[in-house]
Amino acid sequence: MGEPETNPISKVSERVLMDEFLTEFDAVFAEFARRAKPGRFEPNVDVALSSDERTLLVTVEVAGADPAQLRVMVEQRYLYIVGRRPDTDRGARGTFLMKEIDYGEFAKRIHLPVQVAYEDAAASYRDGMLTIRLPVSQDLPHPYNRTEIRMIVKRIPA
Question: Which residue has the higher pLDDT, 51 or 37?
Fold first, then answer.
C-alpha cells in the first residue's frame, strides 16, 4: 500500500491562504510597531502545558477587546497577539481619581517552551479571556532544561 494521494490544488490553496494571512498580519504588526502611542500595553498571559503534555494552553486577559480586531500568529517558537481595547466610555466617567485599566492597542510576544503544530491551533474568546490551544508537535522531542543553582545563604546580623 502506498501513501494516500494528496490534492495538489488543496495544498496550493492552503499555502495561498497562509501567505495572505501572514501578509496581513505583518502589515498590522508593522504598523503597530511604528506607532508608539501612550495607549499601548501588554496584556497579562498564562502559559500552561496540559497534564498529558499534548497541548500548550495560552490564556490572555483582554477584557473589552474587540474580537474582530484580535490577531494571533505563530512564528517558529514565538506566539504573537495583537489587538485593541477601545475606551468607549471615557468621557462619561468624569475625572479619574485612580486609573489602572489600560486601553488602546496592545501586543504580546510569547516564547513557546515547546515546538507546536500550529496548523491545528485553535483560539476562542469568552468573558474577556482569549484562549489559544496549540497542539505540541510530536515530531520533535520536548526540551527539558533544568538548571540548578547552588548558593550559600548567610544571615547578616542586624
Answer: 51
